[in-house]
Design goal:
Layout (H helix, E strand, L loop, with lengths): L3 E8 L5 E8 L9 E9 L2 H7 L11 E2 L3 E9 L9 E5 L14 E4 L5 E2 L6 H24 L8 E3 L5 H12 L4 E5 L5 H7 L3 E4 L1 H4 L10 E6 L3 H9 L1 E9 L13 H5 L3 E4 L7 H14 L2 H6 L1 E5 L3 H9 L6 E5 L2
Helix pairs in contact: 1-10, 2-3, 2-8
């Protein structure tokens, strides 16, 4: 029986995680009704944590990393997919409870898969990845709340990262005045090329927040959490909204209720992992029309599968700009 390469974590009896390249057979894959030949994956912050071999992300042992994958269906007993279909998958517990995309083959549930939207190939799908798909979910949440470009600026924190980069590109195309918050001032030209109108230092937002601050933006996309999110809320205009989708600074929220009860601010939680399929399809449909692929290409690098461990170590330290596609094939 032929084998294929996968990047797997196993836990020993003492609970210590070990990250190794493995040769597997299709029979060793987890349950599912569709087998996909994986051609591309990507690196998100969560992937970096997984590949550190020190996180709580893998809830089963052994576990294959990679929360995203794109590729070609090899076989299917699911009514919605047939051999040869080009597909993508984000989340649904990949790298946590189900083998993920850092493998040359994956067996998954067809109910988790999406056919590649027209105009988006596997490479671009993974250039977007969970980070870009989360950015689009955040934009949709802000729109559904009712905030619009005429209400004032939108803030994007963690601006040079994957979520931030895609969010800036989308929001600027939709007509927003984008304020980008970053701890990397050397990336100012890069952020402006994506559509940011202003750049602010993340130090303005990273210290403990006052209950209320000067109203500076009508909306925000925050991938940082902790004190940063508390400051973002305190400076959001009356009846504005903040989409919360990350925890790079921390999981805590040391904030006051003042922005909520005195200004009517809305805090919108973004779940990309178990997001309902209808919302996923809406997000990918909008990505196909509202994300400039030239800007996506400008923020994206491609690496070989063999380089993923070294590259993932950089993202946890904030050392990756934009997006990275992993060429599994």
């Amino acid at each position: 029986m032929s084998t294929f390469k996968a990047l797997m974590i196993t836990k020993d009896d003492a609970g210590v995680q070990h990250l190794d390249w493995k040769q597997l057979t299709e029979a060793e894959l987890m349950e599912g009704d569709v087998v996909v030949r994986v051609t591309h994956s990507t690196i998100n912050y969560k992937d970096g944590l997984f590949l550190s071999a020190k996180s709580a992300i893998p809830r089963k042992s052994p576990m294959i990393g990679g929360i995203d994958l794109a590729g070609i269906v090899e076989s299917s007993s699911h009514a919605g997919f047939k051999a040869g279909d080009a597909v993508l998958l984000n989340g649904y517990g990949l790298s946590e409870t189900h083998y993920g995309g850092y493998s040359e083959k994956a067996r998954v549930k067809g109910d988790w898969l999406i056919k590649l939207p027209a105009g988006i190939d596997a490479h671009h799908a993974m250039a977007i990845g969970t980070a870009g798909y989360t950015a689009m979910l955040s934009v949709l949440a802000l729109e559904k709340h009712g905030v619009k470009p005429s209400d004032g600026p939108v803030l994007v924190t963690g601006a040079a990262g994957g979520v931030g980069s895609v969010a800036i590109a989308i929001l600027s195309k939709l007509g927003w005045h984008v304020i980008a918050s970053t701890g990397r001032p050397e990336e100012a030209d890069y952020l402006k090329s994506l559509g940011a109108s202003e750049i602010i230092d993340r130090k303005e937002l990273s210290e403990p927040a006052r209950p209320l601050g000067k109203e500076r933006w009508a909306a925000a996309v925050d991938s940082v959490g902790s004190h940063t999110l508390a400051n973002v809320l305190a400076m959001t205009k009356s009846h504005g909204a903040v989409a919360c989708c990350g925890l790079a600074q921390g999981m805590d929220l040391p904030a006051s209720v003042a922005p909520f009860i005195l200004r009517g601010i809305a805090l919108l939680g973004i779940d990309s992992v178990m997001c309902p399929m209808a919302h996923r399809l809406e997000a990918w449909k909008r990505l196909a029309t509202d994300l400039d692929l030239k800007k996506l290409d400008a923020m994206t690098r491609t690496i070989a599968f063999s380089d993923v461990i070294a590259e993932a170590a950089k993202i946890v330290k904030g050392g990756i700009r934009g997006r990275v596609v992993v060429n599994i094939a």
